[in-house]
Design a protein that fits this description.
The protein is mostly beta strands. The chain is built from one helix and 20 strands. A hairpin with a 4-residue loop joins strand 5 and strand 6 (92-98). The protein is globular, with a radius of gyration of 19 Å.
Length: 271
């Protein structure tokens, strides 16, 4: 459970979602996310403390790279590093290591003040997965395929934008433990506005809604996950094409998911 908040959701995208990079332009981001919580959403969606005075501490560092192959085609790579800790009255458990690698491609269908983009991503099980109930793994031990569509609108000359994404995640079977996690529908809605010359504000709502999960054909209720976040944030322009973002995602609804506030800090640059 300790890894869910970060394993399930890639790092926040500081660049407005639906726009792709111009040809031969690159974008990089280093972001940190951290959560320390004693609460979770249970099977029935109720927010409740972890059993036996449990405490869940999750920290992740993400490296994101994007490159414009053409003015319409963009490729993306993301590699995380995790520090996961879960303590309760019975034991202390922790894991540190590289997480699962994601590679993606995005294709722009429409340009102009309103843009449309489709994308596909593949998650590789590069993070170590240990089939042991007493160990919190940094990897999920299976492949995912994400298919998504995005629409964005620029309100220029007003320095504001709106972007909406909807996607479907096909989840593979973990062959080490026989678990087939349910496919997931995910979505994001994002708005941003430049307040003054260097300071911008953004707001994000995002959700993840899982289907039935099984282990050797038997349904496992504790693996069907769901969460909705609201995420306010500030973006400060350090220099042309270099920005710093502070975000505070917090959960408003969930199922089999850690509850509470996450602190995010990201630095990104375009070159």
């Amino acid at each position: 459970m300790g890894a869910l908040i970060l394993l399930g959701c890639p790092s926040p995208r500081a660049w407005a979602g639906a726009w792709v990079l111009p040809a031969r332009r690159a974008w990089g981001q280093i972001s940190l996310l951290s959560q320390d919580t004693t609460e979770r959403y249970f099977l029935d969606g109720e927010r409740t403390p972890y059993f036996f005075d449990g405490r869940n501490r999750t920290t992740g560092a993400f490296l994101d790279l994007r490159y414009g192959v053409t003015d319409r085609l963009e490729v993306v790579a993301q590699l995380p590093v995790y520090r996961l800790e879960f303590d309760d009255l019975s034991d202390r458990r922790s894991s540190t290591g590289l997480g699962d690698l994601r590679l993606a491609a995005r294709w722009n269908l429409r340009k102009g003040s309103t843009v449309a983009t489709v994308g596909a991503a593949l998650k590789f099980p590069t993070g170590e997965f240990v089939n042991d109930a007493e160990i919190v793994p940094v990897g999920e031990g299976q492949h995912d395929v994400d298919l998504s569509a995005e629409v964005g609108h620029s309100f220029w000359p007003r320095p504001a934008y709106l972007s909406v994404l909807a996607g479907y995640r096909l989840r593979g079977t973990n062959r080490e433990n026989g678990i087939s996690p349910g496919d997931e529908f995910f979505w994001t809605a994002e708005v941003g506005h430049r307040l003054v010359s260097r300071l911008g504000v953004k707001g994000v709502a995002r959700g993840l809604h899982g289907q039935r999960s099984t282990s050797f054909g038997l349904e496992i209720q504790t693996l069907k996950r769901e969460v909705i976040y609201l995420q306010p944030g500030l973006v400060w322009e350090l220099a042309p094409d270099r920005d710093l973002e502070l975000s505070l995602p917090f959960t408003v609804k969930g199922r089999n998911w850690p509850a509470g506030v996450t602190v995010g800090l990201g630095f990104y640059t375009r070159f």
